[in-house]
Amino acid sequence: MEGFKLTKTQELQKELFRKFAEEEIKPIAKEMDESEEYSMDLIQKMQKCHFFGIPYSREYGGAGADVLTYTLAMEELSKVDASTGITLSVHTSLCCSCINDFGTEEQKQTLLRPLVDGSKIGCFGLTEANAGTDAGGVQTTADKDENGDYIINGQKMFTTNSGFADTFVVFALTDKSQGSRGMSAFVLDRTMPGITVSDNIERMGIRAASNCSVNYENVHVPKDRLLGREGQGYKIAMGALAGGRIGIGAQSVGIAQGAINEVLKYVKERKQFGRTINKFQNTQFKLAEMQTKVDAARLMVWRAANAKDNHENYAPLAAMCKLFASDVANEVTRGCVQLMGGYGYCREYPVERAMRDAKITEIYEGTSEAMKMVISGAMKV
Amino acid sequence: MKIVVCIKQVPDTTEVKLDPKTNTLIRDGVPSIINPDDKAGIEAALRLKEQTNGHVTVVCMGPGQADVALREALAMGCDEAILLSDRAFGGSDTYATATVIAGGLKTLDYDVIITGRQAIDGDTAQVGPQIAEQLHIPQVSYAEELKVDGDSLIVKRQFEDRYQMIKVHTPCLITALSELAKPRYMTVSGIVDAYEKEVKVLGFEDLKNNFDPANIGLKGSPTNVYKSFTKQAKGAGTILNVTPDEAVQAIMDKLIEKHII
């Protein structure tokens, strides 16, 4: 990014994401939402275009693009389907970033490479039934056996992508007496005996995304699957979530912009009182207000992404962009449904799905309340 | 196999309006794309490259802004890109355009040249065949399928009511139909690489010995647009709610009345 403008490279990347979303995702988004099942065929198409390794180095098989380009993917794909956005986000900014930031060279070559070169899909298991915003309350354990390997036991909740993921980054206590400081991060394979994934959890929105509880029963994890050092788990998780928020901010912008784009078409066709409803000042002003907020949210997302690309302290900026953009996504999708009236409420039009999908952006990867904790903390209030 | 693809950047719609004064297309505010038939040509070239461990050079004649079309082709997997660009080339008709492009292609080594059948803005379908004529190589137009057979290509050539299967020796020129190959997407890494590569720009000075300068640009164009206009819509048709037999009779009566039969 230069000033407030995308570079030529980023513009062409955006065009790729836009075209892919229109041609490959839009036609099946409604069907995936209704069947509550993500298309594996679509995942393969995205892998082929290198969508699953956008901000990662070529050295490890990534696409070698920047974080800002990744936010463009998140926005463009979420414009037509927020479920695709979260599928990409959890893989890229939660699962892969843990290995990229804390893995040894060997772990990056063996565990990160297949994730970012488009061969495997990853997920991230931190949240538990009793450990949500209070992530330090994780109860899953990792006990050392006589060979120095680990035996993991516990149950994780709301693990996005777990229905089909190959690689699981899992957080467990290696020292129960230390609380969050006794937490460590591990990289597991789906094929390891003792891992059971539940059916999809029934949800309000992003219904096409895979989201399940995962049970770990005496899962034997070799010691070379520990990420970083014992006790670094909480730090690793918080780091990944801080980066992930930029992606969720971009997803929120996409959901909102996608809904506005649909409404723009509708108001030029829908006639009431003898004229199309775009001629009414209420429609014009409402759309002007909504677009202004979406643009502001987008600039905040780009600022946070730019800071991460420049290795600056991006965590408070990421929290701010997510707090603001997720609020905008909810307000704008509600406004879009309202502008379309009864038709907006019908499942025939995609704004209904957008409004349901928007809600989660205020909850996952840190609730809006948790964002305020991060922001006020950075302000030293 | 050394493959060259010629592409054109065109406005992204068939609904563009004409400027009544200049009789040219109004391009302002209309996004530009790679001409669809040419994009199928890129895909066909990339498949030939994959089959033969070949090399694809993409060539475009146009203003500086056509750079993005070449970057897109690189991001799809082409190896090299050349932009033929000079004020002296402006205003060229199909003959003058083919002259410039053929001049550019003379700087390259090739086994196969692929162009699109026709561009959605001009719809002439003349430039590909004229390039082949100027380079004195065989050509097969309207290619729907393409297969490598030793030093030759086997081309399925589409007609309205039949196909021709043509075996042609290389070097040759093929004009591609959109049906020839569904273009692949760019890749994220391909785009990163595309902007790290150099797009070679060749202008009049670089090419002046490869063609007769009297045959290029507006002055070198044997044809020019005399008049262009938007077709007026015909009146509404007649709908007859009758039985099939009566309908046949009604149509026959009308055709006889109009002396068509």
Word description of this protein:
With 381 residues, chain A is an alpha+beta fold. Chain A is 53% helix and 14% strand. In chain A, helix 1 (8-35) packs parallel to helix 3 and helix 4 packs antiparallel against helix 6 (233-269). Chain B has one domain: Rossmann fold, CATH 3.40.50.620. Chain B has helices at 36-52, 67-76, 94-105, 127-135, 188-194, 204-207, 244-257, and strands at residues 2-7, 9-11, 18-19, 24-25, 32-34, 55-61, 80-84, 112-116, 139-149, 152-158, 163-169, 172-176, 199-202. In chain B, helix 2 (67-76) packs across helix 5 (188-194) and helix 3 (94-105) crosses helix 4 (127-135). In chain B, strand 6 (55-61), helix 2 (67-76) and strand 7 form a beta-alpha-beta unit. Chain B is of the alpha/beta class and 261 residues long. The chains are: A alpha+beta (381), B alpha/beta (261). The A-B interface holds A 8-9, 12-13, 16, 19-20, 48-51, 53-54, 58, 62-65, 69, 73 and B 68, 71-72, 75, 185-192, 194-195.
- Shape call of chain B: globular
Q: From the 3D structure, determine the CATH topology of chain B.
A: Rossmann fold
Largest sheet of chain B: 9 strands, mixed
Which two chains form the greatest contact, residue counts included? A-B, 20 and 14 residues
Q: What is the name of the CATH architecture of chain B? A: 3-Layer(aba) Sandwich
Overall number of structural domains of chain A? 3
- Please tally the β strands of chain A and state the result: 10
**Estimated radius of gyration of chain B:** 22 Å
Cα-atom Rg of chain A, whole angstroms?
21 Å
Which architecture of the largest domain in chain A does the CATH hierarchy give at level 2? Up-down Bundle
Helix-strand pattern of chain A, N to C?
HHHHHEEEEEEEEHEEHHHH
Total beta strands of chain B = 13
